[in-house]
Here is the input.
Amino acid sequence: MVEFLSKGGVIVIPILLCSVLAMAIFFERVIRFARMQSRGTGLAAKVAELLAKGGGEDKALKFADESNSPMGRVLIQAIKAKDMDREMLETVIISSTDEEVRDLSSYVQALATIGNITPILGLLGTVIGMIKAFMVIQQMGGKVNAAVLAGGIWEAMLTTALGLSVALPTMVAYSYLVARIDKYEARLQNGSVIFMKAITENKA
Here is the structure.
């Protein structure tokens, strides 16, 4: 396999590095999402219940903090701002939610970049390989048989195939992670709505 890939030239190296980086990012994000899958579930309702009882702000803050989840961190900021006017409270919640979403999205955009550049790297490798092949043909005075020409061409096209084989699964992984992030963002927004509703009812 190493000997086969080496025929693609120096461009094979950055393509392989991109594939390793993409796998590292994907598995790191998947592991993180799996760890926090159950964290924060039902947290907003529980915090709202504690606040509704009156005098439960400290318990609500402690409960949210102990969850060690994005939902918990958003609720901590919301609880601290609960006595502000509604517009300011919404601003605090939106800002906190956006910050958590940015954290969840860390490195994910790099997958899209890798998925975009690896086919271009592959095409660059092919172009370089074709240039070398035709330089050899010129040096031989055009007296090249079909076997020699075909060999030079398939070696040149190897990098394009390799670039595409890295780009396709990388873009699938990117789409999967974006869907997971969108789903978690929806959970944060739903939790914020529950909190806002509880605060509004308490003030009424």
About this structure: DSSP finds eight helices and no strands in the chain. Helices lie at 2-6, 12-35, 43-52, 57-66, 70-80, 86-104, 108-139, 146-203.
